[in-house]
Specification:
elongated, binds zinc ion, Beta-carbonic Anhydrase, Chain A, disordered N terminus, 2 domains, 5-stranded antiparallel sheet, alpha+beta
Length: 381
């Protein structure tokens, strides 16, 4: 059960995206040309993508197919989780190997909002959540947080600022739920314990800590009636506990990746954006270690790159999203086994330095026509 102390948490999840974005029509040829500059052989490269199952990821896959001249292998599970048990088959399908991992987030240019995406095939072309899997995973945490925002109240008692906390939020033996960091919120007694100054029927009243009072301002506590804590319940004041199946790459893998950061995610103005970034960071770190160990990849050239796909909702006359890729990190392995990781800034520079011209790219329409014109092959039974 993930139940992490503050000092185990990374202070900030996510990575810079400003100035880091690249449209897929530029990213795909640059990635291909980078591979060639590393000695990858044209016609012998098997790309693989670890994308969510969302159809919005189709356009990036088409661009990769066009520039690498073959349909990419599939390393992806819903939410942008890498299926590392597919390394073996991927390794045997090409001489030189590429894996592109990307979690994704929608963007609506009209409202300038992340996390939403226009679904052209719905009855009224309405907007829906994107990534839907991430949205679904964080919903439970958002509900818990909302309850807490409304049921932790600020008031005063005998001239002192106090915090009224619903009893449900004080049960420390709860297997699941939002757990308040009481040490930060309320004053401790001489023994270092948080003791209520008053008991109510469904809540307890505590003296507010000097730190919290100073942070939010004394005037918040002086009203005639108690006021909900609302936005003042910041990420440093709580964490989550939840029973999640620990199965690696199982249906709860994404939630497992995110739970330690959930207090940051749900208090962020763009929760699905930051969640997608955090998932990419965790999947890169986890996956490169599995590539290093994979027998099938030994003695092979490999380029593993992870980033974020931003799916810009299709505009009038467009079939596909105008997807942008934000690189996060890469792992490069030579045939002799030497390898290195490349951090975001160097990775962006490396990609940007590549030509966007790709003479090896294929004409997909022509390739489809060749298949349509080909002589029938009878399947012998
Ligand atoms: Zn998705």
């Amino acid at each position: 059960m993930p139940d992490l102390a503050a000092d185990m948490l990374q202070p900030e999840g996510g990575f810079p995206i400003r100035g880091m974005m690249m449209r897929y029509n530029l990213f795909a040829p640059r990635l291909y040309n980078w591979c060639k500059s590393l000695g990858f052989e044209a016609g012998k490269i098997m790309p693989s993508r670890a994308f969510c199952s969302d159809e919005s990821q189709g356009y990036p896959i088409i661009m990769l197919a066009k520039h690498f001249g073959t349909f990419p292998f599939n390393h992806g599970r819903v939410g942008g989780i890498v299926a590392t048990d597919r390394h073996g088959p991927h390794a045997s399908h090409g001489q030189d190997l590429v894996i592109i991992q990307a979690s994704h987030v929608g963007y609506d240019p009209q409202t300038r909002r992340f996390g939403t995406y226009r679904r052209l095939q719905t009855t009224d072309q309405e907007c829906g959540s994107n990534c839907g899997k991430i949205h679904h995973v964080i919903l439970w945490y958002q509900d818990e947080y909302q309850f807490c925002r409304e049921n932790v109240l600020l008031h005063h008692l005998d001239g002192k600022p106090v915090i009224v906390i619903d009893n449900q939020l004080l049960r420390e033996d709860r297997p699941e739920g939002l757990i308040l960091r009481l040490n930060k919120l309320v004053e401790l007694d001489a023994n270092g314990l948080h003791r209520p100054v008053k008991m109510l029927s469904t809540a307890k009243v505590y003296t507010a800590s000097a730190e919290f009072t100073a942070k939010v301002g004394k005037s918040l506590f002086t009203g005639k009636s108690a006021v909900p804590i609302n936005d003042h319940l910041s990420a440093d004041l709580f964490f989550f506990r939840r029973n999640i199946s620990p199965v690696e790459e199982g249906s709860h893998h994404l939630e497992h990746n995110l739970i330690r950061f959930m207090h940051q995610i749900i208090t962020n103005p763009n929760p699905t954006l930051i969640a997608a970034q955090i998932n990419t960071q965790i999947e890169f770190d986890r996956t490169f270690r599995t590539i290093v160990k994979e027998h099938g990849y030994q003695g092979k050239r490999i380029l593993f790159i992870a980033g974020l796909n931003i799916d810009i909702s299709p505009q009038s006359g467009q079939l596909f999203p105008l997807t942008k890729f934000i690189p996060w990190a890469a792992y490069v392995q030579e045939q002799d086994g030497s390898h290195r990781t490349i951090e975001q800034e160097e990775l962006l520079q490396t990609l940007t330095a590549q030509s966007t011209e790709n003479p090896d790219q294929i004409d997909l329409e022509e390739a489809i026509q060749i298949m349509a014109d080909a002589t029938e092959v009878k399947i012998e039974l």
